[in-house]
Amino acid sequence: MKSLEELRKIKERALERRKLAGEGAKSRITVAMGTCGIAAGARDTMKAVLNEIEKRQIADVVVTQTGCMGLCEYEPMVTIKIGEADEVTYGKIDAARIPTLIEKHLLGGEPVAEWQVQTAK
Amino acid sequence: MVYRAHILISGDAACIAKGARDVEAALWEAVQELNLKDEVQILEVSSLGHSDQGPEIVIYPDGTDYVNLTPEDAKFIIEEHLLKGRPVERLTYREPPSLPLPPPSEKEVRVVLENVGKIDPENIEDYIAMDGYMALGKVLGEMTPEEVIEELKISGLRGRGGAGFPTWLKWTLARNAPGDMKYVICNGDEGDPGAFMNRSVLEGDPHSVIEGMAIAAYAIGASQGYFYVRAEYPIAIQTLRAAIKQARDYGLLGEHIFGADFSFDLEVRMGAGAFVCGEETALMQSIEGARGMPRTRPPYPATAGLWGNPTNINNVETYANVPKIIHKGGSWFASMGTDKSKGTKTFAIAGKVERTGLIEVPLGMTIREIVYDVGGGVLGGKKFKAVQTGGPMGGCIPEQYLDLPVDYEHLKEVGSMMGSGGFVVMDEDTCMVDIARFFMEFTQDESCGKCVPCRVGTRRMLEILNRICAGEGRPGDIETLEELAVYIRDGSLCGLGQGAPNPVLSTLQYFRDEYEAHIYDKTCPAKVCKGLIEYKINPEACIGCTRCARNCPVNAIEGKPKQTHVIDADICIRCGVCKQVCPVDAVYVE
């Protein structure tokens, strides 16, 4: 350790890493992983989400899972919530769709309308 | 690697004793089996807060807290919670329903324990993320040793090991002592029965103590430090060693730290289990490889300590406070606590209280607040009788002082002491003579034998107490106890002997009637002392179920099925099993 500056850099890095673990995160991606979701490929979807986040070094996001939402034919389902905005629900999100979804919605802030599923509030 | 879920498992000694290692193994196995190892991270951390209900895990990001786990439960949780996304309701932690409001956490203030249970103690970057080592950087880059000591003076920090000596003054003495080679020592020989404050800090946030020691070393001009930790704390030692290695790897220990003209390194030395080695001069003897026995003071360690060199020795908790004081400022620290006792103090609450465990509160909080608000009240709603503070050399404080502020001065005034933070609550079913006897047994056992009054005197006192509890007390016993207490207190070199009579003196002061009842009336008011009680069966209530007779280890109970049973007092050993097993509460104590 040569300087306070160096320590601060490690601190920033460590904070980023802790944010990934869920502390003080701004956004949340949820993958539905009920039996139906898993049967439809949610596990691959989840892996794709994790890969993409790591590849792009995105901080401030929590990746979590949930159970069946009751719309099994739309599985795999994914929801994205950014800050205080309403949660957006997507259906039929296979692993191939994840990079687009993350780039457009999570990073770009624009929900991808054509994959969206309308859910009752 | 990015994970979607993190499982924190408590590696607290209490949890390990209850099988946390097997649970952890089962977690790993299940994660492997279900092919989740790329998505889920398992981390062993320090206590998660409910060690009385261990093994315990917490799953993030949702923060679900699971307690009382078996390896089978662990596997089930992985399957349900992490594979299928369904938290397992039946295994989650529930707040005890008997807790009165306000919730305990509101009165707690966490300074020393701020990071404990929140960070991975084996990952230095977790500590750095919480502003760790910022204080050391500030000290080395911007402050002179005098300024560091001045900041501590403003903070009003006093030794957390028990005596409450002002830390800034101790450091000044060591700084001003002439000598080329100086040392800092951390006293982690926490030996009070039931105390585990220091262990929790060492296991949960070791770097805070390392940083505090490095700052102390800079302030007094030392370049070498020693951790003295008792061998009964293997996990603390392991965590500490890992932390020291990491600090070296990051250049936070070693040569020219932060590019400054300051070098410092640390070593861990294990104590071999002698209670007296928590006394500073005995501790240093032990580090030097000699038999741990206290010596006369002065000279104090500050002038002639380890290997005759100036040495600063502080307790774990004292050092852990230092980085926070430097980082947030001495006046911030001084804003907590009372006039003469600043900051917070950790306590290990034990005994007859609803919520036993580790707490941290601002100094000056009353005993009532600690027992009722933080501790949740006396166990089972019974009546409060006394609290014993300061470990085996402390005193018992009775009910009339419930509103006494807990700080160094007030505890001393009523015949007890702060000590390292033991806090044993006693209810109406506790016999104060028996308690005094228990602590005397401990100090007698741990007396190193160097001072005759301590070695022989504690034994004489214990013999008298044993006799009183056995129902063979004699007139004059109380007076002899009081006389011996004075000799032992005045004729011993160290705190062990000087404090050994405290439990007896304080109980004699506040519960003299109980001693008199034992000696003159041959009764034990709390119905505890076996020599003075008799178990009996109420013939009106007995249903003749034979359960007591079948469970009696010495066959002291006579009676046929469906007929009243009778205990033969001559055979009975007063073990109390009959009272425990009786389904209709027919057994009573007289």
Describe this structure in words.
The complex is a heterodimer of chains A (121) and B (590). Chain A has a single domain (19-115), classed as Glutaredoxin (3-Layer(aba) Sandwich), CATH 3.40.30. A four-stranded mixed sheet of chain A has the order 2-1-3-4, covered by helices on one side. Chain A has helices at 4-20, 35-39, 42-56, 98-107, and strands at residues 27-32, 61-66, 78-82, 88-90. By secondary structure, chain A is α+β, with helices and mostly antiparallel strands. Chain B has five domains: 5-94, Glutaredoxin, CATH 3.40.30.10; 124-334, Rossmann fold (3-Layer(aba) Sandwich), CATH 3.40.50; 344-427, Roll (Ubiquitin-like (UB roll)), CATH 3.10.20; 432-521, de novo design (two linked rop proteins), CATH 1.20.1440.230; 534-589, 2-Layer Sandwich (Alpha-Beta Plaits). Chain B has helices spanning 13-17, 20-33, 71-83, 124-129, 134-142, 145-155, 167-176, 197-204, 206-220, 234-249, 280-288, 316-328, 330-334, 367-374, 408-413, 432-446, 452-469, 477-490, 495-499, 502-510, 512-521, 547-551, 577-581, and strands at residues 5-10, 40-45, 57-60, 64-66, 183-188, 224-230, 265-271, 311-315, 344-351, 357-362, 384-389, 396-398, 422-427, 535-537, 557-558, 566-567, 587-589. In chain B, the strands form five sheets. Chain B has a five-stranded mixed sheet. In chain B, strands 2-1-3-4 form a four-stranded mixed sheet, covered by helices on one side. In chain B, α8 (197-204) packs across α9, α9 (206-220) packs across α12 and α16 runs antiparallel to α17. The chains are: A alpha+beta (121), B alpha/beta (590). Chains A and B meet through α1, α3 and β2 of A and α4 and α5 of B.
